[in-house]
UniProtKB/TrEMBL annotation, chains A, B, C, D:
Protein name per UniProt: TetR family transcriptional regulator
Species: Ramlibacter cellulosilyticus
Record's keyword terms, sorted: DNA-binding
A single GO molecular function term of this UniProt record: DNA binding
PANTHER family: HTH-TYPE TRANSCRIPTIONAL REPRESSOR SCO4008 (PTHR30328:SF54), TRANSCRIPTIONAL REPRESSOR (PTHR30328)
Top-level division of the source organism's lineage: Bacteria
Domain HTH tetR-type: 17-77
InterPro entries, per the entry: Homeodomain-like_sf, HTH-type_TetR-like_transc_reg, HTH_TetR, NicS_C, Tet_transcr_reg_TetR-rel_C_sf
One Pfam assignment: TetR_N
DNA sequence: GATGAATGAGATTTCATTCAT
DNA sequence: TATGAATGAAATCTCATTCAT
């Protein structure tokens, strides 16, 4: 039986897809490391092992590529958040789980933090111009609302807590520590990313949020 | 009597100082708006209304200028922190005061936030190379330690609270909300900087921190 | 009866011809709009609704395509000129007819003008390399010679008029006005292509040529 | 007496002026030879013997440079036209003088022709955007009007001749022959720029215009 | 005959920096 | 102290063309 030299249509498509994804991953790393302004298209091509021209072929220009990267990293975190299944846990456990998840995700995806900072430096123009911005809303907000409500009903949580505010607070406690770890270290002289320091931070964050939420 | 075309020594020095400060302010705005990578030396000169060459004359190169800007904005916030006089207040009031100060300062100095983000994107290299990094340590840490200790002694605060962790947490609650306001708005569709939203955020932050600190 | 997926030979040939003509028309428009240097192969493919590769398949490269376009537009005008039948008219009427034809043809085929300008910018290299250049000679020259001779014999036209010079003059009177209408308009502030202005130009051209030719 | 190493202020200014003029001349030649689309900024810098960056320093970008070139060549021809002093001549001599001038100027400045063609290919956008477009109006129009009027009064010229139409016609007779000399040659097989052919063309043009203008 | 993916060379433009005074 | 002119290196992006079916 002879080898078929012409691949099926789907396979051809997959090649284009693969190239696009390779570029996307390379771009994500480059943008994360240098920011939008400091990123170099040449370096992205090099990282991807693909011709620079192909980047323009698929993504039009640097700005659009950045937008594509942003959409991608948001989709990634949302996918993970969707897997959390917080409603199946006790309210306090659910909140603890969310704090841990947030902390771990940010730690394991430092690119997410720098990319978000870059996006905000540009006033999130790349997101507001995105047609998919709608889909990027966090699925956690709704689950967290349910968790808070259940906790309140069961008498363990205080009432009147806005789930968006709480979500932002949890994020903020983790984000600031990790995003600014270099300046904090330069100024305080502590190694904030040493295992012990990291454990202490997570513990502190949990104390703060639960200390606030739990009824005495 | 002939006009003297060359100003006296002191005057020249004062001019030099003024030029330096003008450049510094222009650079701060430019770096804040575009980040280190996106900032343009030409634009800084234009903002300052001074010749580009002067920038190199006084600050050697773009990186050193960025470093000078960073040191300056840190000195500015530390100066303000020093005016807080938290020890003169009741512990809970002192903490509330610190939260409000942090929130207001970040709000009124958005350039501080973007500059810090830029510094961290570059792994705070500009700070660690600075000879004045030592002076940039926050005077609040020590005062906050005293406040926490007094609160604990008076029985109003829980014990075992690390002042650095708390300081970072307060900063984080404010910083993340303001730094990421553009992406948050693009995704949640809320205007986070409307007066009402701002008041709610400050109120929530205070609730979280005091809820955590105060004994029942 | 099974569907035949491959069209019959003749059909395929007809498809090929059609594709070639589609490309040719698209290329003519593109070259006319942007010149040889400014034309984009991508845009030609887009205009033709065909794959870019086909252009190379049929025409080898951009230069050869331009050459093919040039030959085509010359063939087109020569075909129209052949339909004029000037010898069947009175000499003065024949000349008037030629002036009107020239004016109308240039007006209705602005692409002819810009293509000729492009060809001349490149020193007509695309024509001199063409094997069909011979066929591009105007059939009008000979008829015009006959018309002039008859007019002279009948005593209505002056003698000693070179038909090529006259042909070029008629063309020039129309061509310059239309080719340079944009700059003329920018400078004189008149709208040269308004109906009234157009009628005046044709009238003037006829006056000039007949004023020159006709005996008193 | 020591050489003064610092040139006077005016001399410094002249250096910048000289650079600008050098660039302008180089750009004029390049644009004339290759058109706007085909011109290369690199080649302009090379022709000028100056750093490519300087072109952007003085002229912002390629389009603005083209605009500056256009303004310049228009100013040049207008300056020459102003020197004509047609009103001092007999009407018929004045018109002959204008025809000769137009013919000679176009012959000696082939760049003017190709630049105008380029400008028109771009719909004279570079002129209409120019603030100096007003100044580019030909001074000849008014003088020609006076000449025509005087000729009519003296009974040598026909009446009712629009000076703009006549100006355009004279230009057209010369322009078309020279602008399209390459295609004409490729098609007619004549060398249109040989001395004899040139003399014949000028003679023919004069015959046409005066044949039209002069009363019998 | 027809096509989407890919590429190398080169285009315009940008930018930090230095020169010359 | 201050400045306009000038530059080399490198950035983004373009374009005609070819590859692989």
């Amino acid at each position: 039986m002879a080898r078929d030299p012409s691949p099926a249509g789907e396979e051809r498509v997959r090649d284009a897809d693969r190239s696009q994804n390779t570029i996307l991953a390379a771009a994500r790393d480059e943008f994360a490391e240098y920011g939008l302004g400091g990123a170099r298209v040449d370096r992205i091509a090099e990282r991807a092992g693909l011709n620079k021209r192909l980047i323009y072929y698929y993504f039009e220009d640097k700005e659009k590529l950045f937008q594509a990267v942003l959409e991608q990293v948001y989709r990634d975190i949302r996918d993970e958040e969707r897997k959390l299944r917080l409603t199946e846990l006790e309210p306090a456990t659910a909140v603890k789980r969310l704090i841990e998840f947030t902390w771990d995700y940010y730690r394991e995806h430092p690119e997410f933090i720098t990319l978000l900072n870059s996006a905000n430096l540009h006033k999130a123009r790349h997101l507001s111009e995105s047609k998919r911005a709608r889909e990027l809303n966090s699925p956690v907000i709704e689950t967290l609302a349910a968790v808070l409500e259940r906790g309140r009903k069961e008498g363990v949580f205080r009432g009147g807590v806005d789930p968006v505010q709480l979500y932002v607070s949890i994020a903020g406690l983790a984000y600031f520590y990790l995003s600014n770890s270099h300046t904090l270290q330069a100024i305080f002289g502590r190694d904030l990313l040493a295992p012990k320091a990291r454990a202490e931070r997570l513990s502190h964050m949990t104390d703060v949020i639960l200390g606030y939420l739990l009824n005495a």
